Amino acid sequence: MTDTPKLIAPRLPRGFEDRSARDIAAVDAMIARIRAVYERYGFDPVETPLFEYTETLGKFLPDTDRPNAGVFSLQDDDEQWLSLRYDLTAPLARYFAENFESLPKPYRSYRQGYVFRNEKPGPGRFRQFMQFDADTVGAAGPAADAEMCMMMADTMDALGLSGQYVVRVNNRKVLDGVLEGIGLGPADPARSLVVLRAIDKLDRLGDDGVRQLLGKGREDESGDFTKGAELGADAIGKVLAYTGASGQGEDLFGTLRGLVSGNARGEEGVSELEAMAALFAAAGYGPDRIRIDPSVVRGLEYYTGPVFEIELTFEVTNEKGQPVVFGSVGGGGRYDGLVSRFRKDPVPATGFSIGVSRLANALKLTGNLVASDVIGPVVVLVMDREAISDYQQMVAELRNAGIRAEMYLGSSGMNAQMKYANRRNAPAVVIQGSNEREEGVVTIKDMVAGLEAAKAFTDNAEMKAARPAQFSAPRTGLVEAVERVLRADGGAA
Fold it and tell me: Where do the annotations place L-histidine binding (predicted)?
């Protein structure tokens, strides 16, 4: 007696998700609108692989004791370490450096694809997620950064989110000036990084949570403890005074200049923010769409100047049932040192990234993204197995006419085949039994009209006898008859 083999439990790995046809169609429609804005600004597509050499990506994610912290890595057959990309920016820097001689400067491109983070998954936090980026490489100065912010705003408008977002803008140079003023910055890069990451959690943890992370540390609800920057009370006060600076125009810039007075890098950052604000005003982007906000940091380490985030401002309910602002769906900034890792000469660059999955969720909540059912193929039923070549010929004729079609390939009878067509969301079904074949006709059932007509019947037997939205057509007129049904239902024929 042989042992029954143990079945493998079908399990989706934590931090990953499956996507259905209707989800894919909805996201594709959203991406098409984003792409149209990018191309209107003069950006062209480029695609890089999922894997890069680990040293190419660099270590810009949070450090731990593992050499491949934050990323999924493996060794190839010549013992080179490869990693799945954790964003689309580091691969672009490699691509630009490798193709430097042949690319136009500045180089304007957009990219869409999956990225991977080897991090602890949680609600809304995935290990694989899609991003949609746009970057300008080879352009220094605040004008290129300002253009990115304006394009972010235009993208949100194109997606139907006017009045429900704000692009928040800051400059890392200003924060660097604040950090140097409390004895950090280049003098203590490790603690400076802890401060940056603490500020980046401001919208989620609030002032009290960030204050703990700037001090001794913070224990979260699960009991995990995050070690803090161990700043003194005066230093914590200065950092929070910086992140809490409010207002617009000269009131805000005056406050920021006071916080970095005497620090050349910090003062340079304030000047760049003033220049960007002037460009926003000149182009008609008011603070209701693009706003200077010192609390914006961005978590990645490679940013060197202006940084920006798209925040959706409408309220949603969190897992605790509390009303909260939806929050960030993307962002970016200037990263002048990233390409310079590959070349001796400095290469300025700026760009931003949209979190596709998170943005799609936001659009569903606002009614701007409807995950409607995908229209399936016309299904040709197989009523007579011995005549299968005739059914295959019908399918070929429909496909040659540009109509999505398939022949039923299962082994069930007519009722099960009709249920199959319903599950496939078929707009029409083609039926030909032996009697129809002898008469030289086919029966076409309009599934959309039939569903609507069925609502008028209260008796199932009566409905079957009436055969609503079902008609006969000459076999030679199959394509024309199906096209007529598709046009009537609003499908493409």
Answer: 87-89, 117, 131, 135, 298, 302-303
- The response to whether 89 counts as a known ligand-binding position is yes
CA distance 163 to 148: 19
> Does residue 135 have a known ligand-binding role?
yes
Query: 351-407: per-residue pLDDT in tens?
Result: 999 999 889 888 888 888 876 667 899 999 999 999 999 999 999 999 999 999 999
Q: How far is CA 203 from CA 50, 230, 237, 295, 299, in A?
A: 31, 21, 18, 9, 13
Closest CA to 444 of 413, 387, 412, 487: 487
Residues in Cβ contact with 84 at an 8 Å cutoff, skipping those fewer than 6 apart: 50, 51, 71, 72, 73, 115, 116
Q: Binding residue per annotation — 19?
A: no
Torsion of CA 323, 326, 327, 329, to 10 degrees: 170
CA angle 130, 312, 297 (to 5 degrees): 75
Q: Which CATH architecture has domain 378-488?
A: 3-Layer(aba) Sandwich (3.40)
Whether 302 has a binding-site annotation, put simply, is: yes
Whole-model pTM over 0.85: no
Pairing of strands 73-75, 81-84: antiparallel
Q: How far apart are CA 23 and CA 214, in angstroms?
A: 41
In which residue ranges of the chain is CATH 3.30.930.10 found?
21-181+246-365
| Amino acid identity for residue 455 in this structure | K
Fold exhibited by the domain 21-181+246-365: BirA Bifunctional Protein; domain 2 (3.30.930)
303 known member of a binding site: yes
C-alpha to C-alpha distance for 160 and 452, rounded to whole angstroms? 31
